[in-house]
Amino acid sequence: MAKKKRKMTKPKKRWSQRVTEESAALMLEPGVFTLPTPRQIALSLKRSADSSQRRKSSPFRSAMSMLTFFINRAGKGLSAARKKKLEKAKDELRALYGED
What we know:
The chain has 100 residues and is mostly helical. It is built from 4 helices and no strands. It has helices at 15-22, 38-51, 59-74, 80-97. It is 56% helix and 0% strand. The chain has a domain at 31-97.
């Protein structure tokens, strides 16, 4: 049996990228996950979560969920150094909200 040819289609944005860019719960600042320090990432997420009127849970949970979502969805595409920086941003976020 012959193989079917696939049509060449325009690459689509991934659903996870759309969630990160257009989240209904948080309006993230552009480039938030590429900021230079874990503290800056955490502060940006905190600002977004605190100012959001559309979130369904506490600001801390919303910010932590978005950060965890990004880490999980980026997966193998993250360098070890970048993943370490994002994991440290979780610790900074906990400290900012007093959730040690």
